[in-house]
Amino acid sequence: MVAKLLFLSPNVFAISASEAVNQGKALSTSEHTKVSDTDFKTVVPNYSANVSEASTYNTSKIPNQQGAALKNYCNTTSLDSMSEEKRQQCNAINLTTYNSKVQGTFKLDPKTDPLLILTDKFLKAQKNNPNGISLQCDPDQPIKTKGQVASCNATTKNTIKRCVTPLNMTCASKSSNTCSGVGGINPDKIIKQDSEGSFTYANNILTFGIGSGQGSGYRKATFKMDIEDVKETEIFELQTYYYDNGTRLSINGQEVLAANWYASNDDYSRSPVSYIKDLKPYLVSGNNEVVLENRNHAGPYQSSVTIKAKENCPCTESWGQETCVVETCLPKTVQVCNQSTAGICSASGGILASTFKLDSVISGGLSYTLSLSNGVLVVGATSDSSNYDLGEKVITYSFDLKNAAALGKFSLKKTAWDDGIQILINNQLVRSNGYYVHHRDEVSSSNEITDLRPFLKDGKNTLTLKTFNVISLFNTRAEFDVDVACDCYEQEDQNSCANP
Predict the structure, then answer these.
(1) Residue range 280-308, pLDDT digits in tens
(2) What pLDDT sits at residue 490?
(3) How many of the other CB atoms lie within 10 Å of CB of 323?
(4) 432 Cβ partners below 8 Å, 6+ apart?
(5) Which residue from 47, 124, 376, 449 has the least number of CB within 10 angstroms?
(6) Do 353 and 254 lie in a common domain?
(7) In this structure, is residue 83 part of a structural domain?
């Protein structure tokens, strides 16, 4: 073990607290004289032994009272007139003193803040949907679009909740006229430009007129009319006109009516003439000019037109009472296709892979081949070394075919035999190699492509391999390129509803 011993010097001894304070004072007094202003200026920016702030405070007043005077000085004195040091100080004082008063309080609105909205929806989903069923939207806060009915569907495994909220528009009519929001006319702002003419507006009928009086000649009445938003204008339609002798109406420089205008006779209408014409295409948003003209050849004169128009008035939108109904969820039926056996499948038609099977076998030691993968069908049989299986053997397969007329391919691709082979489709011979030769004829592969579609039919089909072996081992094999139909069935999807 290593031991450390502390040996105290005979000069080290304990002193009282008051003696320690006195020694500290003496040390600071003796050392203070060793530090000059020059030393401080080299390390402290803007150092001065006579700082301006010294006059702000004194020992007889509370510093905060003098601080109020300094705040007032910083608030009322131009910063440009101050020294750099004083300007920095006043910038700090002004920021802490006045900025908090003029800056608005930062608020988090739960209806507009994205984070709070998502949090609220998450909490509601957890409360209303403890099993974690996904919601298409929030029935309590449906998306509302101007001019439409707000709707929301929330689907669970057993029910579907439908909520509808109507959008109501309330327009405050100024008189007996029906108002139309920003798309109507403002009769208070229709201005007559000429000495001739007058206008009235009552019961949604705007009337412009000249006369009546006596004397031939030409007269004109111009009116300025404001429409805030022409796209929102529901109706501005000519209803009737009166002429004596000629009347013409123009809107924004376009002639819309000329009644007996180009004639030189003294004709006139005995009563207002009904003439319905849509005048909205002639209007623009903002200021519109309406000009009514009269031309008289003799006697009294008069021109007038009536136009059906709604009044401009303030409208407010409000959402009505939400109504919800809960319906039983009818599970949606979906189609499921099994491609595991055949790989690629055709929706139009082909072999139903699950139906392909070996129907008959041969007694003896034979190994049978039946495979269907990625549109390649292989069938056949091979004897083992202990069984020669001489003579004729028959192997039968069967399968179902979907939509034979739409079948893209079903062709014999390769054959192999030892010693002879015949292939039949639905008992019709489609290939024969070495079958009646009755001598040894071993062929490992023959690439003779034959289209077999003409021999097939919808529903059940048979494929037969006849083999004839003269001597030694037995072997037969056929390979086909085929279309495999999608083996599909319908089942209910419990996670979705078929309800419209």
Answers:
(1) 999 999 999 999 999 999 999 999 999 99
(2) 73
(3) 10
(4) 420, 421, 422, 423
(5) 449
(6) no
(7) no
